[in-house]
Amino acid sequence: MDKLITTHDRGTAVAGVPKGNPDGKASNGFMLDWVRTEPRGLAVKPQKQVLAEFFTSMLVLSAEFKYEPTKGDPNHLYFIDGEWRLSLIAPEQWTDKHRAGHVGTCVLQNDMTWTIDPSENLMQDGPIAEAIARFFDAFAETLDTDLTLEEILPFYVRRMPYWQRLYASALSRSIRGVVTLSDLSSIRARDWQQALPAPDRTLLLSY
Length: 207
Hints:
The chain has seven helices and four strands. β3 and β4 form a beta hairpin. α2 runs antiparallel to α6. The longest helix has 20 residues. By secondary structure, the chain is α+β, with helices and mostly antiparallel strands.
């Protein structure tokens, strides 16, 4: 999870609209991207669903990708050579190595959270399950603070690729809005941590 630094980590992430001209994009182009990634259709959700969507989305956004994801279109999450990767290429179009590393099919929702339709690989013991467990532990550790969930939401880090920065910020806006609508604001992140299931793949299977 070190690619998605939260707002209280080392002072490197910022809330709100990022300043400057990321990756050489013209300011008008960046603002259009910002508007197009505005979360839509936010709704009241129970705490465990908010946690599941936060966890799943953080996992997807920690993956390497260099393209603009489109809402509703299938993306494919892989764990290859110890790295998370997001791709538009389906596993059946790639090598046996990629098929074995396929975690699931991911879809960006209108509210800028992500869902995962897990592959059979996710249900088996092995490198993918172990990587998910490590990510779960890191996610749980992030919640081990007296700050509120809103205060530790991911925004962006300058060294991250442009689309990851933008979509991390969109996720933050989404979670913040849902937390407010659901009357879950100002709850300590440590209290959210207590609502986590056992450290397994449960959060990815909540949809």
